TrEMBL record:
Domain RNA polymerase sigma factor 70 region 4 type: 42-93
InterPro entries noted in UniProt: RNA_pol_sigma70_r4_t2, RNA_pol_sigma_r3/r4-like, WH-like_DNA-bd_sf
Protein name (database record): RNA polymerase sigma factor 70 region 4 type 2 domain-containing protein
Pfam families documented for this protein: Sigma70_r4_2
SUPFAM superfamilies found in the cross-reference section: Sigma3 and sigma4 domains of RNA polymerase sigma factors
Length: 103
């Protein structure tokens, strides 16, 4: 499968997962929604304490869900720099948050 088709498939799958998550929140209690909102606020506040390059790549790759190619074009970086910086940014964020981001 070509790289372009793979990226389109990844985006499609991400949108599908986000739709499923959004539907879950429709049935969430106000307490669960508040907890989620507080967690998001803590995440963004922690991200702002990271190096600017880490913050930028986390926003584009993690929040806006741009592909590596799209992110490299926006930031005017090589694709390998995007991948490496994103990996390092996730590790730094995880360390500052005091545990795993995937729990």
């Amino acid at each position: 499968m070509s790289e372009e088709k793979e990226e389109k498939e990844e985006k499609k799958q991400s949108r599908y997962q986000l739709n499923l998550i959004s539907k879950e929140f429709l049935h969430s209690s106000p307490e669960e929604l508040l907890r989620l909102s507080e967690t998001k606020a803590e995440l963004y506040a922690t991200m702002k304490t990271l190096k600017q390059t880490y913050y930028d790549v986390l926003i584009y790759r993690g929040i806006k869900e741009l592909s590596v190619t799209e992110t490299s074009q926006v930031l005017n970086w090589s694709e390998s720099k995007v991948n490496l910086t994103y990996h390092r940014a996730l590790k730094a964020l995880e360390k500052k948050m005091g545990g795993s981001l995937y729990e």
